[in-house]
Amino acid sequence: MKMFIDGKPADASNGEVIEVLNPATGEVIDTVPSATKEDVERAVTVAVDGEKAWARVPLHKRIAMMQKFIDLVMEEENHSKLALIQCKEIGKPYRESYNDFGGFKAHIEGFISAAKNNLGGTTIPFGVQAGMENDFDVSIREPIGTIVGIVPFNAPLVLFAKKAAPALLSGNCCIIKPASDDPLTVLKLSELMYEAGFPGYAYQCVTGRGETVGEWLTADDRIAGVNFTGSTAAGRSVAENCGRNLKYQSLELGGNAPMIICADADIDNAVAEATACRAFYMAGQICSVPKRFIVHRSVHDEFVEKLLAKVKTVRVGDPMDPETTMGTLISEKAAMRVEAQVNRAIEQGARLLLGNERRGAFYGPTVLDGVDTGMDIAHNVEVFGPVFPIITFDTLEEAISIANDTKYGLGSCILTRDLSVAFKAALELEAGSVVINGQSLYRNLLTAYGANKDSGLGREGQTQTLLAMTQTKNIVFKNILK
């Protein structure tokens, strides 16, 4: 497949390509251009030159295009084709890929609704301040220019929606850079964007490695803002580029979310919540899911027994098999990294109860017991795969201390029937969100969602993202009543 510059399919100017592999088979699915700096500069020039034209397009017309885009994506032929592409390039079960579209549709429709309600202006009443009785003061919201959206590998559909939709609806031009491991889903979405009527200057998609294409895009001083989801290391580079040019940035980065399971917790619910997105969705490759399981000593044995029974029901295999509940990790390299992290924990004294079996990019659920605070995995090692490190505690203060002893602060959760304990923990946990009696991956479309510490900057949500991608202009009609 080709990338899109100025609305037209484009190869890299030097002809170089990146092979996209099916992680389940190792076969090459397709190739995409490895954009050069010249290609990136051309895309930015097209977008910047088109900023005023796109900003003048009335909101109702931008909304109509976005609604047509949703309709096109949800047509069964496109829906099935996109699900198959995503299944093959990510290695997730086809049924899981197909079901992702519900969230995709809900997010874009939410942004459409929020755009109608939040992109208007405000007025200041006459005479609210002495000496200004005859002045009419109004504020309007304007787009900031061109937004770069950098989409990670693990959720191309939803994260495309969270970046492209608010940027375009708010009147900004948008350049999307998909992950190099799985760019095909985003490129197919791009085709449908043009079919829906978005002009080539308003929306473009450039493919290539993050360390080159991502760096060139975020460092270009003509870019007005960057919405990035990815690793903390890459996020630091983005932040440096944005800071140097004083541009808008939203960064959702890594996480090592704690799940505190108290003595009075419903253990069946704890196991269900612990495994929902750590073993039964995306093979645990999600930033905000629980990654450290901090369990009260009195319920440790019950939790471990029920956790093992649950994860043993996972069926790892061919993503196209309807019986498969877990496919591959994004690549064999990613699976090898998880394997190495688990081996390191075992070297440091953790006990392997289940798993740590790798076959290419396949890596099944793995349970580690006896993890203590002296081990790397208990602190700043984010394991991006279906691994359950179990740490025991005796007091709530100890549990909160363990939970906070990390550089990350994206999500957190606590399971307890005692609302006083829950509220105390909610106030003391150092994270952007705290979920009580549920897992840490919880995204209400209306919530201001974000992170603390090294897990990111800014807050995202339907209203929050739209407002962040626009700026306020104050207009005063002085002495209009005279």
Strands, helices and their partners?
Elements lengths: L2 E3 L2 E3 L6 E5 L6 E6 L3 H20 L2 H16 L1 H15 L3 H6 L1 H18 L3 E3 L11 E8 L2 E5 L5 H14 L3 E5 L6 H12 L7 E3 L4 H10 L5 E5 L2 H13 L3 E5 L4 E5 L5 H10 L13 E7 L3 H12 L20 H16 L3 E4 L3 E2 L2 E2 L2 E4 L17 E7 L2 H9 L3 E2 L1 E5 L3 H10 L4 E4 L12 E2 L1 E2 L2 E2 L1 E2 L1 H7 L1 E8 L5
Parallel strand pairs: 7-8, 7-10, 8-9, 10-11, 12-13, 12-20, 13-18, 17-18, 20-21
Antiparallel strand pairs: 1-2, 3-4, 5-6, 6-26, 11-24, 14-17, 15-16, 19-23, 22-25
Strand content: 15-25%
* Physical arrangement of strands within the biggest beta sheet: 14-17-18-13-12-20-21
Q: Sheet bearing the most strands, described?
A: 7 strands, mixed
Shape, per Cα inertia axes: globular
Q: Can you offer a commentary on this structure?
A:
It is a single chain. The chain is of the alpha/beta class and 482 residues long. It has 15 helices and 26 strands. The strands form eight sheets. It has a seven-stranded mixed beta sheet with strand order 14-17-18-13-12-20-21, sandwiched between helices. It has a six-stranded mixed beta sheet with strand order 9-8-7-10-11-24, with helices on both faces. Strand 8, helix 7 (184-195) and strand 9 form a beta-alpha-beta unit. The chain is globular. The termini are far apart. The relative contact order is 0.14. The mean pLDDT is 96.
